[in-house]
Amino acid sequence: MDMNMGTRTAGIGRRREPRTGTANLLVFLGVLPLDILVGGYAWLAVGMEGWAAAHNGEDAVLPVTELLWSGGMPASIGLALCWGRFWAAAVAQFALTAVVMAVLSSSYG
């Protein structure tokens, strides 16, 4: 009879621990340049659409395709960060994405 009943071998059933705060910060700062590029593209697309509509005397229409792409890219990065156990960086990524998309969407009423 095995005397170690109820115990598991190393590596089986171990709980996955989150990464440290420093690791989360470094990962978030590493992803931030990509966020800036994607957010800048969205800002440019929204601004150009609004400028063109104002220049032509038309009502501005929110460029939904660009916003979906620009929101989906950072959101997918956030999901990858969750999978990598960088949960604090993922929360910051999702929050940043939500704020940028809210600001860009609010410019169209």
Tell me what you see in this structure:
It is built from 3 helices and no strands. It has 109 residues and is an all-alpha fold. The chain is elongated.
Rounded to the nearest angstrom, the distance between the terminal CA atoms is 73 Å
Counted by DSSP, the helix tally is 3
> How are helices and strands ordered from N to C?
HHH
Query: What ranges have pLDDT less than 50 throughout 5 or more consecutive residues?
Result: none
Shape: elongated
Largest sheet: none
SSE layout:
Blueprint: H1 21-56, H2 64-83, H3 87-106
Helix pairs in contact: 1-2, 1-3, 2-3
Question: Tags for this entry?
Answer:
single chain; 109 residues; mainly alpha; 0% strand; elongated
How do you describe this structure in short?
The chain has three helices and no strands. The chain has helices spanning 21-56, 64-83, 87-106.
